[in-house]
Amino acid sequence: MLKGLDNQLERKEDGGLYLAGWIWVPVYGNLRTLIMNEAHARRYSIYPGADKMYYDLRGLYWWTGTKKDTALYVSKCLTCSKVKAEHQKPSGLLQQPEIPEWKWENITMDFINKLPRTRSGHDSIWVIVDRLTKSVYFFTIREDYKTEKLARLYINEIIARHGVPVS
């Protein structure tokens, strides 16, 4: 038995060893593989993925490395790899976004939150970037600013200077 588990394992009437209600599966021949075979190809949940199979197994069985063993087992399953390959888009080049034709025609924006509060009460930064030139505006704001206040700031600072972007 495993050191440290001796006093935690409980032998039940059926002769099995249990750890906190789970059947403890020792390293004994290919017993763990047989259990995984049954869990993976049973009639009502044919070929579940690694996560689903692990959650199904952990409801009944336990052994050191159950999750790792389950993931390895599923990764080696030929049927799973064939099915997965058919249902997923083929890997390839990432979809490149179109290059804008004019500066400030296409922008991106993001918020950086949970910063230390400044003396003026600002605790966030609003970042607006032109995708063509990579020009950036940084606005210090408070996290609790309402949408109307952000819209006013956007109109006064971005639209007033560069016009309305396409996206």
TrEMBL record:
Gene Ontology molecular-function annotations: nucleic acid binding; RNA-directed DNA polymerase activity
Start and end residues of each Integrase zinc-binding domain: 30-85
Cross-referenced InterPro entries: Integrase_H2C2 (IPR041588), RNaseH-like_sf (IPR012337), RNaseH_sf (IPR036397)
Keyword Membrane on entry: no
Alphabetically ordered keywords of this record: Nucleotidyltransferase, RNA-directed DNA polymerase, Transferase
Organism expressing this protein natively: Tanacetum cinerariifolium
SUPFAM superfamilies associated with the record: Ribonuclease H-like
Classification via Pfam families: Integrase_H2C2 (PF17921)
Annotated protein name in UniProt: Putative reverse transcriptase domain-containing protein
Superkingdom of this protein's organism: Eukaryota
